[in-house]
Automatic annotation (TrEMBL):
Residue intervals passing through the bilayer: none
Signal peptide: none
Protein name (record): Alpha-E domain-containing protein
Highest rank taxon of the organism: Bacteria
Alphabetical list of InterPro entries matching this protein: ATP-dep_Glu-Cys_Ligase-2, DUF403
Domain DUF403: 1-308
One Pfam short name: Alpha-E
Species the sequence originates in: Sphingomonas liriopis
């Protein structure tokens, strides 16, 4: 496989995963702000920008911390390179470059996701926003289902590798922002707002039911942190994403004969996560741990590019 083809497939996976995460984040923030027993207001929308590291860009656009302005910025603003529409546009461009490497179903799902935003410049009220992000989620799920029906070859593995790397980054950022920023000053840890916010975190990663299955002692921050960091069974956890990355790099190495820095980094990270205990992480500093993970994930991304000569 040509290196530019591998790069396009990898980035296709990353951009689709990023668009899906943004849609999930917006949905959860709308519910936290509008449907919570105590609407979070500016704090909720500030946290959404913090998760996506777009506070500076949003301020430069002159928007206000309201649902209307933040949702528009994160979804349909074509001048913002991280918006959902731009992610889907980049995903579609990468897909076009490797059209013959994709199944018809995978290409159709990407195209349908992109068409959700055709001629759309506004998002509307909360109900309209929820319908929009649900449409995005439906199409990205359709793409993921189509990928899982593809041949287990390099095309399949590079797409999933991009998804795994992006997923790990998103989960780490989401967990870090909740722990340090989201709870308003004066609100009690374990209070109504705190519980609503931890539930929102679980909703973003589709883990509400999983949490109830695994933990019988109610909703606690320590258990949520344990689930999102250390669970091998939750697909969006840091550990599961790391396990998937090791598996995919191994399959690519067998097929291409390309072993290198990325394989070593991924295996070391997975082994370390396998020994991680959430209580120790919290005691030593969750923020520091997650920031280190995000930096390491970025270094792994760069190593993948070098190993497969993305250019």
């Amino acid at each position: 496989m040509l290196s530019r083809t591998a790069s396009s497939l990898y980035w296709l996976g990353r951009y689709i995963e990023r668009a899906d995460f943004f849609a999930r984040l917006i949905e959860a923030t709308v519910r936290l702000d509008v449907m919570s027993s105590r609407p979070a207001g500016e704090v909720a929308w500030s946290s959404a920008l913090a998760v996506t590291e777009t506070e500076v860009d949003f301020a430069a656009h002159g928007g206000t911390l309201t649902q209307t302005d933040v949702v528009r910025f994160l979804t349909v603003d074509t001048s913002h390179p991280g918006s959902v529409i731009r992610c889907l546009d980049r995903a579609r461009n990468n897909a076009k470059a490797v059209r013959t490497a994709l199944s018809r179903e995978a290409w159709t799902a990407i195209n349908r996701a992109w068409l959700v935003f055709e001629s759309r410049s506004q998002v509307g009220d909360a109900a309209q926003t929820l319908r929009l992000v649900e449409s995005v989620k439906n199409e990205t799920r359709g793409f993921e289902g189509a990928v899982h029906q593809m041949l287990r070859n390099q095309s399949h593995w590079f797409i999933r590798l991009g998804q795994a790397v992006e997923r790990a980054d998103n989960t780490a950022r989401l967990l870090d922002v909740k722990y340090h920023i989201l709870l308003p000053e004066g609100e009690a840890v374990g209070g109504i707002v705190d519980r609503d916010q931890w539930t929102t975190i679980l909703q973003v990663v589709s883990a509400v039911t999983a949490y109830r299955w695994l933990y019988s002692d109610g909703l606690t921050p320590a258990n949520v942190i344990d689930l999102l960091i250390a669970s091998h069974d939750l697909p969006r956890s840091l550990t599961a994403s790391a396990d998937t990355t090791v598996e995919l790099l191994g399959l690519l190495a067998e097929r291409t004969g390309s072993h290198g820095e990325a394989d070593r980094m991924a295996r070391m990270r997975a082994a370390r996560l396998g020994r991680t205990r959430s209580g120790e992480v919290i005691a030593s500093g969750l923020h520091q741990y997650l920031q280190a993970f995000i930096r390491e994930n970025g270094q792994l991304h760069e190593a993948i590019g070098r190993q497969f000569r993305f250019g």
